[in-house]
Specification:
heterodimer; A: 265 residues; alpha/beta; six-stranded mixed sheet; four-stranded antiparallel sheet; 26% strand; B: 325 residues; mainly alpha; ABC transporter involved in vitamin B12 uptake, BtuC; two-stranded antiparallel sheet; 1% strand
Chain lengths: 265, 325
């Protein structure tokens, strides 16, 4: 287990109920875990606690068997790569410069960028299909391109685990599918991956396991077939939802219009 | 022109500025006087060169370089290109210290820099205390606010003292606030270097962390920066560096604002190259400004802060236009 949370509870000061209660989960190499749930269910809070940005009220998070808070950030960055939800670049950096920053955790304050670092950068630029963009300024990229560049930067850290917070947000069909395909290839090559997404239909087709959060608690977890069930989704999202068995192992859900029955059309 | 080709121009420009600093002054000592100064041990030219102009030029270069990289670092810290070394309350504290010294101790030459330095350190401490929220987080937005608040408060006291002071004291205080190298000496240079060398070295070592900071605090953390420590180190070292500069030369504006801005366009935004470039360019810029300040209406010396503003403001406006276009 690379990243593991044990009965994590987080209570923000002044809040009537905890943002997270008794959440336990873990990610393993070569496996994609999707974290889903309605807005405000605690997904991003959980993510921040997993990455040591937020300290839990009770419970623990460990990375490679060691408490997350005791990891120096530099060493942590060599194990876990993160693509957060939003990020704005303030200065005009080129794609290559952005991706190079992924190597900083491997470099001392004065060490120049060495040939092995360059090799890693080349490799991740290719892997994320952004080689042609290398001299482009970050602010001129489309949403999909920028997302791929940020994944490339995370990969340049050479992490064992990758954590992504809604990487498909605001991307059109092709770009989102390209990102999902890339993530799946990485996982098949042995990466441990945690993905937060609202797009459970895609999750159903790519994930090994899905964890559904609601009001800070895990309400369902297991394979896509275990979790994507009409009764569970309708309850969690507070909206009537039908589920159809599109292909074995990857059911798809359809939110119903008011008055629409859940049966066959 | 590729970025690597620009370095010789940068270094060459700084060397030319230094040469100008040695040649121009209350009197014009052209190349022949320069050679005489180097060659003959007991000449007047040599005294002017070695005892007056050389320490002044070296001090101006070092102060300029310090203000430049302090500005560049603070801009990365608050993620705002408009940050300048004095923005964070330092100018108010240093000014108040200086004015207090002038009002109380009159014209005692040692009192003003010491008092300004103490005033600046007090302001740094106050701003820092105000900005460390919830016991441990240093919030750059609060840092800006705290800087403005502390600066205004000190400014108000300073104004009150100046209103109550006599006219000659007022003029002295006013001149000091605009900055200058009239008091430059080898001794002043040593004092400045004693305080400035460590902060300069520390900021240079933070170059990669400054790069990470430009991507935002959370991202910087995920890329391996210990963010709280980094922010504190940068704020404190950049401020200490500025305070040392203020102590030996008063408050020279615009260097720390304009030069980092210009250098981002020349060598790019990565701090491993940006900081050395800013140091060289700011140093050269201030040496040149000082040469202009003491020769343009000689024998009267303009405060160098007036010159940096007169040159800096149009330059800044030009840069702004080119950035927006």
């Amino acid at each position: 287990m690379i990243l593991q949370a044990e009965s994590l509870t987080i209570h923000y000061a002044g809040a009537p109920t905890p943002a997270l209660s008794e959440v336990s989960l873990g990610i393993t190499p070569g496996s994609l875990l999707v974290l889903g749930g309605p807005n405000g269910s605690g997904k991003t809070t959980l993510l921040r606690a997993l990455l040591g940005v937020l300290s839990p009220s009770t419970g623990s998070v460990s990375i490679d068997g060691r408490a997350v808070a005791s990891w120096p950030r530099r060493e942590l960055a060599r194990r876990v790569g993160v693509v957060s939800q939003r990020e704005e670049v303030w200065v005009p950096l080129s794609v290559e410069e952005v991706v190079t920053m992924g190597r900083y955790a491997h470099l001392g304050p004065l060490t120049p960028i060495r040939p092995p670092d360059r090799a890693v950068i080349e490799q991740v630029l290719q892997r994320c299909d952004v080689v042609e963009l290398r001299t482009r300024k970050a602010e001129t990229l489309s949403g999909g391109e920028w997302q791929r560049v940020r994944i490339a930067r995370a990969l340049a850290q050479e992490p064992q685990a990758l954590v992504l917070d809604e990487p498909g947000n605001a991307l059109d069909v092709r770009h989102e599918m390209e990102v999902m395909e890339l993530i799946r290839t990485l996982v098949d090559d042995g990466m441990a991956c945690l993905l937060i997404t609202h797009h459970l239909n895609l999750a159903s087709r790519y994930a090994d396991r899905i964890v559904l959060l609601d009001k800070g608690r895990i309400v369902a977890e297991g394979t896509p077939t275990d979790v994507l069930q009409e009764e569970i989704l309708t309850r969690v999202f507070g909206w009537p939802i039908a589920v159809t068995p599109w292909r074995a192992g990857s059911p798809q859900f359809i939110p119903l219009r008011s008055g629409e029955g859940a049966g066959e059309p | 022109m590729t970025k690597a080709v620009r370095w010789p121009f940068l270094v060459g420009g700084a060397l030319l500025a230094i040469l100008a600093g040695l040649v121009f002054g209350a009197t014009f000592n052209g190349p022949s006087a320069l050679i005489e100064g180097i060659g003959s041990p007991d000449s007047m030219a040599r005294t002017i060169l070695i005892e007056v102009r050389l320490p002044r030029v070296v001090l101006a270069f070092m102060v300029g370089g310090g203000l430049g990289i302090a500005g560049a670092a603070l801009q990365a810290l608050v993620r705002n290109p408009l940050a300048d070394p004095y923005l964070l309350g330092l100018s108010g504290g240093a000014g108040l210290g200086a004015v207090l010294a002038i009002a109380v101790a009159g014209a005692a030459p040692w009192a003003v820099p010491v008092s300004a330095f103490v005033g600046a350190l007090t302001a740094i401490f106050l701003v820092y205390r105000l900005s460390v929220v919830a016991g441990r987080r240093l919030d750059p937005r609060v840092l800006l606010l705290a800087g403005v608040v502390v600066g205004s408060f000190a400014g108000a006291i300073m104004s009150a003292i100046m209103v109550l002071a006599t006219a000659s004291e007022l003029r002295n205080a006013f001149l000091w606030l605009l900055g200058g190298f009239g008091a430059a000496s080898w001794q002043a240079l040593m004092v400045y270097l004693a305080y400035a060398t460590l902060p300069v070295a520390v900021l240079m070592l933070q170059a990669r962390r400054l790069d990470l900071l430009t991507m935002g605090e959370e991202t910087a953390q995920f890329l391996g920066a210990d963010i709280e420590r980094t922010k504190r180190v940068i704020y404190l070292t950049a401020s200490l560096l500025t305070a040392a500069a203020v102590a030996v030369s008063g408050m020279i504006g615009f260097v720390g604002l304009v030069v980092p801005h210009a250098m981002r366009r020349v060598v790019g935004p990565l701090h491993t190259t940006l900081l050395p470039a800013v140091f060289i360019a700011s140093g050269g810029f201030l040496v040149l400004a000082d040469a202009i300040a003491r020769s343009i209406v000689a024998p009267i010396e303009l405060p160098v802060g007036v010159v940096t503003a007169l040159v800096g403001v149009p330059l800044f406006a030009l840069l702004l236009r080119r950035t927006l276009r």
